[in-house]
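Dear support,

Our group has been running a series of protein-ligand predictions, and this particular one with xanthosine-5'-monophosphate is the one our PI (initials K.S.) wants archived with full inputs and outputs. We had some confusion internally about which version of the output was final, so please treat the block below as the authoritative record. The input we submitted was:
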Amino acid sequence: MILIIDFGSQVSHLIARRIRQLGVYSELVHWTEPVESIKSMMPEGIILSGGPRSVYEKDAPTISPGVLKLGIPVLGICYGHQLVAHLTGSRVVSSSKEYGREMMSIKKPSQLLKGMKRKEQVWMSHGDSVTELKPGFELLASTPDCKVAAYANEPAKIFGVQFHPEVQHTLNGIRILDNFLRICKAKRNYSAKGIGTRLAEEAKSRIGSMGVIMAVSGGVDSLVAATIIRKATRNIHLVFVDNGLLRKNEAEQVRKTFHELEFENFHFIDASELFLKRLKGVVEPEQKRKVIGHTFIDVFERKAAELKKRHGDIEFLGQGTIYPDRIESAQPSKTASLIKTHHNVGGLPEKMKLKTVEPLRDLYKDEVRALGRSMGISEELLERHPFPGPGLAIRVIGEVTNEKLKILREADFIFIEQLKKHGFYKKTWQALAALLPVKAVGVMGDERTYSYIIALRAVTSSDAMTADWAKLPYTLLERASSDIVKNVKGVNRVLYDITQKPPATIEYE
Ligand code: XMP
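Confirmed final output from the archive:
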């Protein structure tokens, strides 16, 4: 296991992700974690992350120097690199800022930079630099503006790099992390299959013989989490709430999926009328989210109370929380806290006196997918585009009505079908149709029409924080547009959205 001590860099979580990709389990802890606790975790190596502060500032984040004396290999990155230098008596000063791609020249062969070319592209982002190294520490590499771009104290197995090996712009960064793992002699036993078994065992020891209740959405996270818990116990009750804001055929598909996966206690609640009633007259986007979130909790809570009465042994609430949900800097959008309260039924566990079981809490999305794959969940379910908790309500701009939902559902279905047919579904992060709350004039046959406008949006992205509009082929767009206008009554125009995020968001509301 590799322990990452986090000093608050935006990309700390990426270090953990890369280490895991290299087959070694890795975890982040806050820099205040006491040295005894670090020792008791028995890491094979320690990485100190980057961070926004300066090591020489008053109250700057630091670690106990004892961490460097545990005999465990240490790699400092950016702030971590400066902090190790500072704690071991080297000099760190404010310097000219270096930001972006830089060429680094290797000055000395080392275990850390083994296999690198003489000159390598690295990614820098710092305003402080290590200028002089204490005896025992050797200079490994420099850039034109940063003399100490990497150093090593090989006998003590302490290393530092000023650049970020975890980001893609450091072209051979992954090799450096791989070399570090070799220095640590870290065991490469982190694989999807192994994780599945371990997570199910952990869930089992937490749950014991008690029952679990869990809300599922049909999305990947809750599906995989439920499958893990199901491996730990048969005593799991799933609740699916049809809020009437789902896509065409979606509710039925979810029901079928859980039936095929042999979940015995699957409770399907059709609450679509209640949701629509409560949404009447609501036009403001955040208000919509609030109404939907609260209604969801009301419906779920009622069902949970009923099940708890019937099955006295229900003591746990299962949740599909994944690692990025727990890391603030990795939250996917401004609405992330709402996403959380909606999807992960925030506040409910305490209110209902339930303990939580969250088997995926340490995993990234790609790991959740790989885990699902190793458990035999179909590719179609695993590769589904993200779909927001408030569903089509935030794609019907303005007031949500049954008529508008019906139109949107059909248009969305046609668009997604065409994307799949043309092989573009997997190439896009997310695709959707939205209904604009205005009507425009058109002509169909001999008749003048006055109907709604549908906007189509497809984006490429890696984390939903930023997104680019997908350059879909004209033939695909043409087919989607003509099929929508031909088959969906109430629509006479189709637009394709060519706005990036930022400044636009992926969703319309
Ligand atoms: P935006 O529209 O902010 O969306 O660019 C970024 C990602 O978050 C999803 N999203 C939501 N998911 N509840 C959710 O569960 C929400 O309220 C919500 N709002 C946006 C959106 O689909 C995209 O993947």
